[in-house]
C-alpha cells in the first residue's frame, strides 16, 4: 500500500492527501515533522536528503517534492483529467504548479511564519509588511487568471493546479492580515467547496492554514 510520510498540518502533505482523495487511493500515513518524528534522522534522510515532508513510498518508488508526488500519482493512475496528456494542456498545469511552489510560496513565507506560526525568528515588522505586500501581489496574478478562466486555474476542468493553488488560496484567505478584495479568488474557493467529494473539506478548508 502507498505510504505517505508527513504530518497532516503540513500544507505540502495536504497536497498529496487531497490528490489521493481525488484518486480514491488507500494509503498509510506516518506523522513526521515538527512535533512528531524528526526528519533529520538517518532513517528519514535516506528517503529525503532535504529532511522535509512529504515523502511517499510506493512499492519500489520513493519520491519527495509534493508537486512531483501529485503528478506521479495522477499519471500512474491514468487521471488525464487531473494532469492532461496533451502537451500544451499538460504544460499549463505544470506551469501553475511550479509557480505555486516557487514564486507564490516564497512571497508568503515570512509573513506566514510571523502571523500564523508566531515564530520568534520572524518578528521584523518591515520584513512582515514586505512579505504581505508580495503575497497580495502574487495573489493578484491568480485573481486575474481566475477572471479569465471563470472556473478553475487552467480553464473549465479541475486539475492538479487547483489542488496546490486551492490550498494556497485558503492559506492566504485564512491568515490574519490586510488583503485586497479579490472576488474571483473568493468565488473560486466556494467553487472548490461545492465540488463532489470531500478532499477540499478534509484537507483544505479544515481549519488549518
TrEMBL record:
- Domain GST N-terminal, by residue range, is 1-81
Task: Mention one GO molecular function.
Answer: transferase activity
Domain of life of the source: Bacteria
Keyword RNA-binding belongs to the record: no
Which controlled-vocabulary keywords does the entry list? Transferase
> GST C-terminal domain: which residues?
86-209
Q: Which Gene3D superfamilies match?
A: 1.20.1050.10, Glutaredoxin
What family does this belong to?
Belongs to the GST superfamily.
Q: What's this protein's name?
A: Glutathione S-transferase
- Species annotation: Duganella fentianensis
Amino acid at each position: 500500500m502507498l505510504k505517505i510520510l508527513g504530518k497532516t498540518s503540513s500544507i505540502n502533505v495536504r497536497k498529496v492527501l487531497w490528490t489521493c482523495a481525488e484518486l480514491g487511493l488507500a494509503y498509510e500515513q506516518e506523522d513526521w515533522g515538527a512535533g512528531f518524528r524528526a526528519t533529520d534522522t538517518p532513517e528519514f534522510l535516506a528517503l529525503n536528503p532535504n529532511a522535509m515532508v512529504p515523502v511517499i513510498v510506493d512499492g519500489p518508488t520513493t519520491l519527495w517534492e509534493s508537486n512531483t508526488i501529485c503528478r506521479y500519482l495522477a499519471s500512474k493512475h491514468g487521471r488525464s483529467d487531473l494532469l492532461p496528456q496533451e502537451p500544451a494542456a499538460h504544460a499549463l498545469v505544470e506551469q501553475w504548479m511550479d509557480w505555486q511552489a516557487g514564486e507564490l510560496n516564497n512571497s508568503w513565507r515570512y509573513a506566514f511564519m510571523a502571523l500564523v506560526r508566531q515564530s520568534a525568528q520572524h518578528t521584523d515588522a518591515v520584513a512582515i509588511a514586505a512579505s504581505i505586500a508580495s503575497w497580495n501581489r502574487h495573489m493578484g496574478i491568480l485573481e486575474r487568471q481566475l477572471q479569465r478562466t471563470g472556473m478553475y486555474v487552467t480553464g473549465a476542468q479541475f486539475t492538479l493546479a487547483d489542488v496546490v493553488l486551492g490550498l494556497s488560496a485558503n492559506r492566504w484567505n485564512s491568515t490574519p492580515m490586510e488583503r485586497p478584495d479579490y472576488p474571483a479568488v473568493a468565488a473560486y474557493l466556494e467553487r472548490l467547496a461545492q465540488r463532489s467529494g470531500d478532499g477540499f473539506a478534509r484537507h483544505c478548508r479544515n481549519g488549518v492554514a
